[in-house]
Each structure stands twice: as C-alpha cells, then as structure tokens.
Design brief:
Layout (H helix, E strand, L loop, with lengths): L1 H46 L3 H6 L11 H41 L5 H12 L7 H10 L6 H24 L4 H9 L4 H12 L1 H17 L2 H6 L8 H12 L4 H31 L6
Length: 288
Amino acid sequence: MEVVSEQFVKTKKKRFKKGFSQLILYVIIGLIAFLTLVPIIFMIFISFKSNAQIYGSFWALPEPFVFKNYQLAFVGIWRYVLNTVIYTFAACFSIIILASVGGYVFAKKQFPGKEIIFMLFLAMMMVPGLLTLIPSYVLHDQLGLTNTPWAIIIQHTAGGQIFGIFLCRSFMNSLPTSLFESARIDGASEMTVFFKIVVPLSTPILATVVVMQSIGIYNDYVWPLLVIRDSAFQVISVGLTVFANQFGSNGTGIEYAGYTLSAIPLLLTFVFGMKYYIQGMTQGAIKM
C-alpha cells in the first residue's frame, strides 16, 4: 500500500508540475498576443472617433461611432489600394510561375553545374536591396519603365523569384521521384507531368510563396517612391503618406480609418491562404 501511495503522490506531483508549466506557457503566449494586438485594437477604435473624442477621451470607447471616417478614407485611398492589389497579384503570379519551374528543375533535373548555379542564386539573397537600388533605377529608367506599373511588377518579380525557387526546390525534393517516372512511362509529356502532378502537389508551398511575397510587395515603400511620380499609378504605402498630409492633425480618425482599410487586402490574403501556408511551412518548406 505504501508503494502504491508513493507512486500516486509522484504521479500527482508530475501532473501538477506539467499543468503549472503549461499554465505559465499559456500566460506568456497570451501576454505576447495581447501586446501584439494592442496597437491594432487602438487603431480600429481611433478610426471610429472624431477629433474631439480622440483629444478629449483618448482611452474611452468611441461614443458615438463615427462611420463617416471610413467613407472619407475610402474615397481618398481606393485608387492606391486598387493599384497595389493589381501590382501584387501580377508580381505574385509571375513569381510562382518562375519559382515553380525553377524549383522543379533544380529539384528533379540533372545538368552540369546545377549545384553551383543554385548556390549563386542563394548568394543573391545575401545582397541587400538598398545596394542595388540605384543600379535598378538606372536600368528601369533607361528601359523607359519608370513611372509605369511595370517598374513595380518587374522589380518585385525579379527579386522575389529567388526566395521562391529556394522554397520550391526544398519542397519538391520531398516529392517521390517514382511518381514522375511512372507518369513518363505511361506516356505523359514533361508539360503534363509539371501541370498535372508537380503543380497540384506543390499548392501548399506556392501558397506560402504568395503569402510571403505579397506582404513584401504590398508594404514596399522606397522603390515605389523612387520610380513612380504620377499619383494615378502610386501604391498604398506611399499613398497613405499623401492621404495623411491632406487632413493633417484635423483628421486623425480619418487617417486611422485609411490605415485600417489598407490592411484588409493583406488580411484576406492570409485568411484564405492560411491553410496552405501552414501546410507549406510544415511539409518541407524549410527543409533542404
């Protein structure tokens, strides 16, 4: 009986320690999540306030809610948001085409110098973008692409495909080679193998590439500021600065409403791509 009671006490202690450690972990995670969400919550609350409410009762809830802020904000930024969504979609579409083809070639094809070429691709990721900013601008200017949407799309396509190829190659290395060989034995062409087998199986990693690249493209500020002069072609990151200057300190609520609206496209991208994004990150996206 004493042995049984001692084992019972030890088991209870282990369960208590495990439960206590999990509780501490949940508290820490909850605190981190709260600190992360606080700026977003304040942004949304302020976006529904008038200037009098902001300066008179900053910490209080909006009373009443000023929905007109969103109406004015939408009128001011809708063109910038539309431009950015179009540029992001075009660049991401180009990136996944090039990255999927490049990843498949580097993962499943054999040719002289393959590893050296791939290492050179990886080395290009180590070059800071600011170092190539001026040469890139000169190149686009000489090609007559500045102040056009192509300056945004081509630049991000060229810069984003390197990381995309890296992720796709790592993911496609985990796909069974026998699957492709069986398809070729059955008479499938290389295009059929790629579009009917490789692309469907690689949907998680392609979604991962889209989510990660769309964040960078959507939030880019320096390059659009440098190459786009016409406000009709400008992106949201630069457009928000112009939009905020229109109202100054008298339209703080409208400015925050614009910030909130500008975040919706990225939020929707992550919501609809979250399932595939998680699959891509856990099924070989970071494996070599």
